[in-house]
Design brief:
Blueprint: E1 3-9, H1 10-14, E2 27-33, E3 58-65, H2 68-76, E4 82-86, H3 87-95, E5 102-111, E6 120-124, E7 139-142, H4 148-159, E8 169-172, H5 175-183, E9 189-192, H6 200-203, E10 206-211, H7 212-216, E11 219-227, H8 228-233, H9 235-253, H10 258-269, H11 296-308, H12 325-336
Parallel strand pairs: 2-3, 2-4, 7-8, 7-9
Antiparallel strand pairs: 1-3, 4-11, 5-11, 6-9, 6-10
Helix pairs in contact: 9-12
């Protein structure tokens, strides 16, 4: 299983968190994530006050993955409690892995929403590749087979009657390594989400061949999931976690907090703030629903597209695998200003 535990319990990162009050011990919450700032979870615990329930009713443990496909493996084996996963991975988990108890519980972000960011599939500026057909015989890099960006590339290839192994060679490359691979001509195309496709060092020598929106339309790109049994057993702690998540989201989206938000991203990624200043948590970034609600209609369209392209055998009704009770309760409590002690 290709994932590594970060050497950071969020409780340690905050330092000043209160110990749990008398009563039940806090729930250990193992949280999977892939990319910051696309996933806010690693940022929630870097500023005191954003996650007041952490260390009291739940103890967060952040676990990093190369892509969302391997997250499903961890969820299936009981080594992970909640994570943000791609729409494509969610569908494969339901249909192929038989995880009928997996539930969409909240939005993480949406790609290609009107007026917001969409992922770029990029080639070198001097490359002779000008059309999708020009990719024939080339090497294409995505982060992980079955991920959302991987699915977008495969969908665009299918539209143009191209297939992996027959017409092109698709390889797996970690997002941070794609820039160097493309620059050194080790691959001919990279599938890059934010922040990587907004890196000025990449855009200096690369151009967009097509976007994820052009390949598959708007997508409920990433959503937070958990298994029904865990939700039933730990409802109160999950509401507290989602309340902390929404509090963090509102703080980061507030233009008045932009400079500090960029600083938090830089702290989480150990990168220069300048990489994020011009776009993070603006309309140049992905769309995030302020109430944490996923767009289930868009998600259904995404699943239907996967089936039409032959990536799924049967498809399914998305709403049967959604449980928005936790996020709705968290949003209502946050809006009312009433926090559970």
């Amino acid at each position: 299983m290709r994932f590594s535990k970060l050497a950071m319990l969020a409780v340690v990162a905050l330092g000043a968190m209160a110990m749990p009050s008398q009563g039940a011990e806090p729930v250990k919450l193992r949280i999977g994530w892939v990319v910051v700032p696309s996933d806010l979870a690693p940022m929630m615990f870097l500023k005191p006050g954003l996650a007041p329930h952490a260390g009291k009713t739940y103890t967060p443990e952040l676990i990093h993955f190369a892509g969302t496909s391997t997250i499903v493996t961890a969820l299936a084996s009981g080594e992970l409690d909640t994570a943000a996963i791609a729409y494509s991975t969610f569908a494969l988990a339901i249909e192929n892995a038989g995880m009928k108890d997996l539930r969409v519980i909240a939005d993480s972000f949406q790609d290609g929403a009107p007026g917001y960011h969409t992922n770029d599939m990029m080639v070198r500026k001097e490359s002779p590749i000008r059309t999708i057909e020009d990719l024939k015989g080339k090497v294409l890099a995505t982060n992980e087979a079955g991920s959302a960006v991987d699915m977008a590339v495969r969908a665009m290839l299918a539209k143009h009657h191209l297939q992996d192994k027959r017409d092109v060679t698709m390889i797996e490359v970690k997002f941070p390594d794609m820039k160097a691979m493309l620059r050194e001509s080790k691959v001919d195309l990279v599938a890059t989400p934010a922040p990587f496709d907004l890196d000025p060092e990449l855009t200096a020598f690369a151009r967009t061949l097509f976007t994820q929106r052009e390949a598959v339309g708007p997508t409920q790109m990433i959503m937070r999931v958990a298994r029904q049994g865990f939700l039933d057993k730990n409802h109160a702690a999950m509401v507290d976690f989602m309340e902390d998540y929404l509090r963090t989201l509102h703080y980061l989206l507030d233009p008045a907090n932009h400079r500090e938000a960029v600083g938090i991203i830089a702290q989480a990624t150990k990168q220069k703030p300048e990489l994020y200043d011009n776009w993070a948590f603006t309309k140049l970034d992905y769309y995030r629903d302020p109430a944490g609600l996923p767009n289930l209609d868009v998600l259904q369209a995404n699943i239907d597209t996967q089936k039409e392209l032959g990536f799924l055998k049967t498809g399914f009704e998305v709403k049967k695998f959604a449980d928005l009770g936790v996020v709705n309760e968290a949003a209502a409590r946050l809006k009312s200003g009433i926090a559970r002690q």
